[in-house]
Amino acid sequence: GCNTYGGSYTSKGSDFKTGGNLFSTMMYCSDDINNQATAYYAALNSAASFSLDRKTLSLLDASGTVVLVFSALQP
């Protein structure tokens, strides 16, 4: 992507919820990148829980489907 994202979230146990104040910068991006950004934003907003396994954070929607995966860079 070409934008930066931010906002707040809450978690309790494995429950996860964005704070409703997600934002992104408004850089001009190609249509493909804009589509990717829209999907990313929607996935963040759909997250209802998370799992953490070693260096991988997975966000899951209410049905338990993984919607986003973040992993630490390996040196």
What does this 3D model show about the protein?
It is a single chain. The protein has about 80 residues and is an alpha+beta fold. It is built from 1 helix and 7 strands. The chain has one helix at about 30-45, and strands at about 5, 10, 15-20, 25, 50-55, 55-60, 65-70. A 3-stranded antiparallel sheet has the order 5-6-7, covered by helices on one side. The radius of gyration is 13 Å and the shape is globular. It starts with a strand and ends with a strand. The model has no long low-confidence stretch (mean pLDDT about 90).
Layout of strands and helices, then pairs:
Blueprint (H helix, E strand, L loop, with lengths): L4 E2 L2 E4 L2 E4 L4 E2 L6 H16 L2 E5 L2 E5 L5 E6 L4
Antiparallel strand pairs: 1-4, 2-3, 5-6, 6-7
Residue-averaged pLDDT: 90
Low-pLDDT runs of 5+ residues are none
Instruction: Report the count of strand segments.
Output: 7
* Continuous helix count: 1
Please state roughly what percent of the residues sit in beta strands, choosing from under 5%, 5-15%, 15-25%, 25-35%, 35-45% or over 45%.
Answer: 35-45%
Q: Termini, distance in Å?
A: 23 Å
Strand arrangement within the widest β-sheet reads: 5-6-7
C-alpha-based Rg, rounded: 13 Å
Order of helix and strand elements from N to C terminus = EEEEHEEE
| Helix content class | 10-25%
Question: What is the gist of this entry?
Answer:
The chain is of the alpha+beta class and about 80 residues long.
